[in-house]
Amino acid sequence: MSFDKNKEVFPPIEPYNKFHLKVDKLHQIYVEECGNPKGQPVLFLHGGPGAGFGEFHRRLFDPKHYRIVLLDQRGAGKSTPHAELEDNTTWHLISDIEMIRAQLGIKKWLVFGGSWGSTLALAYAETHPEVCTHLILRGIFLCRQEEIKWFYQEGASFIFPDYWKTYLAQIPVSERSDMVTNYYRKLTSQNAQVRLAAAKAWSGWEGATLHLHPNIESKTDFEEDQKALSIARIECHYFVNHAFFKTDNELIENAFKIKNIPTVIVHGRYDVVCPVKNAFDLHEALPDAELKIIPDAGHAVDEPGILRALLAATEKFKT
Questions:
Q1: How many angstroms separate the CA atoms of 233 and 264, rounded?
Q2: Which DSSP string corresponds to 215-260?
Q3: What residues act catalytically?
Q4: What is the mean pLDDT of each run of 10 residues along the chain (319 residues)?
Q5: Which burial class, exposed, middle or buried, applies to 104 when counting CB atoms under 10 A from its CB (0-12, 13-18, 19+)?
Q6: Fewer CB within 10 Å, N side or C side of the chain?
Q7: How many angstroms separate the Cα of 241 from the Cα of each of 88, 160, 238, 269?
Q8: By the 8 A CB rule, do 256 and 229 touch?
Q9: Rounded to an integer, what distance in angstroms lies between the CA atom of residue 56 and that of residue 46?
């Protein structure tokens, strides 16, 4: 029987509240609330950074039970200015989340994040453990140099050499010893055509490798001009700056701060974007967390086993 992700999740839902929150002189963050206004608060953190959230993400939570809060992080989605790098760091994002929580009058919430969203969820929870009731983390990304090198320099290239060829072609042979730095140069070029070409190649590489079975729809979505620009520019900006962490292993080193927060970790066994080793490393630091390795999945949220495990976690953490 074929898998239909739309039959697995909750029915389509529209927000009952949406607004832009001005967080500083430059940035305005787009925020939505869906579901039950008096329900259990849950915060959804999208990936990328730079990807923004979509309608599908509203449907991961029981709308009769949860007060669902979604936001487009700085430079992503409907937040403005689009694809902006100035004053865009992990710590700015954490400050934004706290401003949103205060704006909405929420004392504590469940935090749900996938891919880069898991990075941000961990950084946020380690900074503000007192406001996080539970954590649901998918496709663990700790933003360590070994992870960046694996996906953008050498490693994943051995598994998807056909898609890698397009990504590689943007950078001259003489400059390929440091792909991320040289992509950053193109993505911050004064020439809009250079920026867009680099962005589509960078983002298309990611979109092509998300699923266990390559998904053309995903690749096409990631190559859309606006989305490609925000994903590529903001991701590369974060990666050349080591996600603005003080140490390469900061999230693991600070995991003790969240050891008492009930946590579910969901990761695909054949995740090429964020290798499953990341989830094992996090679980070593959080041994009381529930680790679910999905045997027939890659990185994407909408793969059957991953989606079902995430939905089970949202049911488990109902209070």
A1: 30
A2: -HHHHHHHTSHHHHHHHHHHHHHHHHTGGG-SSTTHHHHTGGGGTT
A3: 115, 271, 299
A4: 82 98 98 98 98 97 98 98 98 98 98 98 98 98 98 98 97 97 98 98 97 90 96 98 98 98 98 98 98 98 97 98
A5: middle
A6: N
A7: 11, 26, 5, 28
A8: no
A9: 11
Closest CA to 255 of 229, 227, 228, 283: 283
Can you tell me the distance from the alpha carbon of 8 to that of 265, in angstroms, rounded to the nearest whole number? 20
- Residues 6 or more apart whose Cβ sits within 8 Å of residue 294: 266, 267, 268, 269, 303, 305, 306, 309
Alpha carbon 8 to chain centroid, angstroms:
21
CA distance 94 to 127: 8
Give the pLDDT of residue 4: 86
Task: Report the Cα–Cα distance between both ends of the chain, in Å, rounded.
Answer: 34
User: The whole model's pTM is what?
Assistant: 0.97
The helix (run of H) or strand (run of E) holding residue 147 is: helix 145-152
Sign of CA dihedral 50, 276, 57, 65: negative
Residue 80: CB atoms within 10 A of its CB come to 16
Amino acid, res. 201? A
Distant-in-sequence contacts of 142-147, Cβ < 8 A, 24+ apart: 142/249, 142/251, 142/252, 142/278, 142/281, 142/282, 143/116, 143/119, 143/238, 143/239, 143/242, 143/243, 143/245, 143/251, 144/248, 144/249, 145/242, 145/248, 147/274, 147/275, 147/278
Place of tokens 């900006």: 237
Buried b (16+ CB within 10 A) or exposed e, 31-58: bbbbbbeebbbbbbbbbbbbbbbeeebb
